[in-house]
Amino acid sequence: xxxxxxxxxxxxxxxxxxxxxxxxxxxxxxxxxxxxxxxxxxxxxxxxxxxxxxxxxxxxxxxxxxxxxxxxxxxxxxxxxxxxxxxxxxxxxxxxxxxxxxxxxxxxxxxxxxxxxxxxxxxxxxxxxxxxxxxxxxxxxxxxxxxxxxxxxxxxxxxxxxxxxxxxxxxxxxxxxxxxxxxxxxxxxxxxxxxxxxxxxxxxxxxxxxxxxxxxxxxxxxxxxxxxxxxxxxxxxxxxxxxxxxxxxxxxxxxxxxxxxxxxxxxxxxxxxxxxxxxxxxxxxxxxxx
Length: 290
Ligand SMILES: Cc1ncc(COP(=O)(O)O)c(C=O)c1O
Hints:
This protein is of the alpha/beta class. Helices cover 33% and strands 13% of the residues. A hairpin with a 2-residue loop joins strand 5 and strand 6. The longest helix is centred in the C-terminal third of the chain and has 19 residues, at 271-289. It binds pyridoxal-5'-phosphate (PLP).
């Protein structure tokens, strides 16, 4: 719905725009500086910066370098620009925290949540705002006109309520936390990383239970497969035939070419199911590569 607006570069470490050699350890501030330049160029007309703390489908679970989001938040605060986090995909425990921004201690002014909010049992989304935003509305017109026919639908809200209760009872956010060695997130990370030995796997990245596998025609040059090959979609089909559902995407290199999969299993997944799924995914990649 927001039609035309400025974009800034994304800290996408596998294909870093700065040709760094240290895994983007020092690139966070350089990428964040792009925001400052864009805000200054907008000459007072920039209202907000919208971001995903970890990319979802479009880039496939790309995690920003440390320092990047803290600097972004600081720049927004200094310039009076609202910080809006889209946590539709990354929120509700997916990355091992309630919301992914918590990994970097960042508190957005507005946070958007959906998907895991009701775990798909009923459609549900939410816009969460801090006191600064709420007070601005309350002390301004005092009215916030929004909504649609079925908002606050009791069945959807009940589904969300049940999901909260189940997540707490089963400690599902801890299960997603890949930094805990006893978690499903950790087991998934270790299993997926073994795919790096395949010729066509260029990068395995992610956090919690949100992982991306990027395919390349040539590992050394990181040359992507030709767009028309639909490599990721073919892998997803071959995996589906084996009973494993993954999310294929194209366009991670330049908006058109570049193939990757998004892998985001439910937090109740067992270590045996993870090993089984990754083995079948390996066979699917090998089949398509052959
Ligand atoms: C990151 C992100 N934001 C927003 C949306 C839109 O969410 P919804 O369909 O719940 O409006 C999606 C949907 O896939 C998404 O992945």
